[in-house]
């Protein structure tokens, strides 16, 4: 039957049912939670966005959060084999006297409806659509997706964007009072483990031990560096 809870098919304003909304903390207006939809891979996000296009909710404001590996369009950074995050930050900070012209064009795609109308119809989109529009407008797709999150009703992203506190902080993701959906949630355990793990080589450990030896031998914050040196030695 027809939808009775929203305006997706009737074209009318939805009924403001107190059971479906929350008062803001300051008492002004109504708070509508965002839906954060987490998936295991970026490929699955593309599949889900295709399914969203087939529903009555295809015109709902949305965004897709992904890494620079998928969204950077800078001709140098995007084709670099080194750390693209670091290169991007260096450009934004102008460390070498250069800046990113694409970042300064983010406002061109910061409005979601402008993004949709550029493709002729109001519909859901995927990462490829956003990157294609970014190249056309010479605007950064990575930061445009982050700006679109402000007005989005549904946000698609990989698991670690929701599970890793450092990523949540860097992406300005606040999950308090929001709706979180995790696709194929049996993979969460491995993802959570990866979020608090890292790899280190023996060469890196030996280099760290040499630096700590110098600190300890020169009595520089001895009580802090001595335990760290012991850890490096035991691991080696």
TrEMBL record:
<dbReference type="GO" id="GO:0006289">
    <property type="term" value="P:nucleotide-excision repair"/>
</dbReference>
<dbReference type="InterPro" id="IPR045028">
    <property type="entry name" value="DinG/Rad3-like"/>
</dbReference>
<dbReference type="GO" id="GO:1990918">
    <property type="term" value="P:double-strand break repair involved in meiotic recombination"/>
</dbReference>
<keyword id="KW-0547">Nucleotide-binding</keyword>
<dbReference type="InterPro" id="IPR006554">
    <property type="entry name" value="Helicase-like_DEXD_c2"/>
</dbReference>
<keyword id="KW-0378">Hydrolase</keyword>
<keyword id="KW-0067">ATP-binding</keyword>
<dbReference type="GO" id="GO:0003677">
    <property type="term" value="F:DNA binding"/>
</dbReference>
<dbReference type="Pfam" id="PF06733">
    <property type="entry name" value="DEAD_2"/>
</dbReference>
<dbReference type="GO" id="GO:0005634">
    <property type="term" value="C:nucleus"/>
</dbReference>
<protein>
    <submittedName>
        <fullName>FANCJ protein</fullName>
    </submittedName>
</protein>
<dbReference type="GO" id="GO:0005524">
    <property type="term" value="F:ATP binding"/>
</dbReference>
<dbReference type="GO" id="GO:0003678">
    <property type="term" value="F:DNA helicase activity"/>
</dbReference>
<dbReference type="GO" id="GO:0016818">
    <property type="term" value="F:hydrolase activity, acting on acid anhydrides, in phosphorus-containing anhydrides"/>
</dbReference>
<dbReference type="InterPro" id="IPR027417">
    <property type="entry name" value="P-loop_NTPase"/>
</dbReference>
<dbReference type="InterPro" id="IPR014013">
    <property type="entry name" value="Helic_SF1/SF2_ATP-bd_DinG/Rad3"/>
</dbReference>
<feature type="domain" description="Helicase ATP-binding">
    <location>
        <begin position="1"/>
        <end position="232"/>
    </location>
</feature>
<feature type="compositionally biased region" description="Basic and acidic residues">
    <location>
        <begin position="13"/>
        <end position="26"/>
    </location>
</feature>
<dbReference type="InterPro" id="IPR010614">
    <property type="entry name" value="RAD3-like_helicase_DEAD"/>
</dbReference>
<feature type="region of interest" description="Disordered">
    <location>
        <begin position="1"/>
        <end position="26"/>
    </location>
</feature>
């Amino acid at each position: 039957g027809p939808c009775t809870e929203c305006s997706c098919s009737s074209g009318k304003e939805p009924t403001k049912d107190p059971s479906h909304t929350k008062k803001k903390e300051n008492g002004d207006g109504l708070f509508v939670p965002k839906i954060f939809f987490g998936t295991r891979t970026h490929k699955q996000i593309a599949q889900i966005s295709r399914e969203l296009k087939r529903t009555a909710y295809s015109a709902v404001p949305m965004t897709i959060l992904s890494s620079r590996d998928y969204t950077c369009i800078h001709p140098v950074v995007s084709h670099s084999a080194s750390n693209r995050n670091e290169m991007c930050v260096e450009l934004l900070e102008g460390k070498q006297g250069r800046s990113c012209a694409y970042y300064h064009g983010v406002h061109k795609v910061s409005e979601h409806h402008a993004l949709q109308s550029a493709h002729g119809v109001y519909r859901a989109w995927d990462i490829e659509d956003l990157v294609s529009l970014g190249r056309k407008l010479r605007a950064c797709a990575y930061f445009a997706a982050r700006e679109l999150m402000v007005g989005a009703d549904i946000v698609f992203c990989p698991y670690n964007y929701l599970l890793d506190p450092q990523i949540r902080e860097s992406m300005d993701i606040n999950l308090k009072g929001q709706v979180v959906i995790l696709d194929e949630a049996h993979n969460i355990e491995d993802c959570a483990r990866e979020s608090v793990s890292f790899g280190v080589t023996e060469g890196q450990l030996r280099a760290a031990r040499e630096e700590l030896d110098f600190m300890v031998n020169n009595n520089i914050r001895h009580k802090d560096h001595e335990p760290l040196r012991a850890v490096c030695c035991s691991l080696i």
